[in-house]
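User: My advisor asked me to double-check a structure prediction for Helix-turn-helix domain-containing protein before group meeting. I don't want to rely on an old file, so could you generate it fresh from this sequence?
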Amino acid sequence: MHYLAKALWYIESHYADNISLGDIAHVGGASPCHLTRAFGLATGHSVMRYVRARRLSEAALALAQGAQDILAVALQAGYSSHEAFTRAFREQFQRTPEMVRAQRHVGNLALVAAIRMDVAPGVALEAPRFEQGPAMLVAGLVERYRAETSAGIPALWQRFLPHVAPGQLVYGVCCNNDDAGNFDYLCAMPVADFSQAPDGWTRLRIAPQRYAVFRHRGHISTIRATWHTVWNEWLPQSGLEVADAPDFERYDHHFDPASGIGGVEIWLPLKA
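Assistant: Sure, here is a fresh prediction for Helix-turn-helix domain-containing protein from the sequence you gave:
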């Protein structure tokens, strides 16, 4: 967890500066892609959205304490103008800076407090196996998420599963990550040819890739804790680096979508 602790320290020490995801990742000693996934799994926040929320939360506290110069508060929070600050503040709290200063409290604001990472909520993890995965064509339904909205993924599976025959091999693929913490999650099945995919489905070609493969044996509702342990504990200790390629969950005939039990494999792409 040390690199997340370093990243959080850097954010708390520099959030008023013009810091980037690359700056935070460099201090933490991880790649931007690695930090984005690990941070989201550990905290439930996208990195740069957390930076923004911390800036605005501290600004809200200053305003509630009676700060008279809103522009000075804006500048201290890293905003270059009153207008930019007000726009971001209203988007975050659904109130203007003037309203918060007038009410003199933050009881009706969803402030984001500083996160401490001195306790690791990891789970016991079996040693992975390593496989050279072949090229694959998959197709299915996709939605774009971020850490704060990823709880909606089961609803995407609910829409997808009626298209799946009992015992059919299916995948939950995470791809197209960006620096803002957004990613595509694709509920998909393998196809021999993209022409087999129904109209409106998203098609994805996955290149041959080396993977570390982990077994999640618990209920599907706890898979986020296994992903967290893979990204935040196993990967830093392994000395290996994640590749810029999709990672995915593999659901075979052992998994029962009605009960959520049966186990799932997690496939993490690795650099050669």
